[in-house]
Amino acid sequence: MWKRLFGAAAVDRTDHHRIREIALTLLPSGTSVSVNEIFCNDPGCEGIETVILIMHPARRTTATKIAKYAKDVEASDIAEALSGNMG
Question: Strands 48-55, 32-39: parallel, antiparallel or unpaired by DSSP?
Fold first, then answer.
């Protein structure tokens, strides 16, 4: 809604959906995933990060970050980022 109000272009979420689908195949059944691309201002950040939010009913919600634009994230990046959340 805000984008329409202020005239910004709509975000192409194709890569977000692709990352979400790959993540869901790697995570336990019943897990929900949200994917966002953010700009990080912290000195230790590289600028753009793709954040995968992992929500499972039996666990605390966790977030993992990949220091790439969503369009550049590969399946191996997702598997590596989620390695501690797959069990």
Answer: antiparallel
Q: What is the pLDDT of residues 19-62, one digit of tens each?
A: 999 999 999 999 999 999 998 888 877 788 999 999 998 889 99
Contact 49, 67 (CB under 8 A): yes
For the entire predicted model, the pTM comes to 0.81
The span from the CA of 21 to the CA of 66, in Å, is: 16
Tell whether 27 is covered by a domain. Answer: yes
The amino acid sitting at 51 is: V
Contact call for residues 86 and 70 (beta carbons, < 8 A): no
Length of the chain as a residue count: 87
pLDDT computed for residue 6 by the predictor? 53
Q: How many domains does the chain have?
A: 1
Query: Residue 63 falls within a domain, yes or no?
Result: yes
Residue type present at position 68: K
Cα–Cα dist 22/4, whole Å: 30
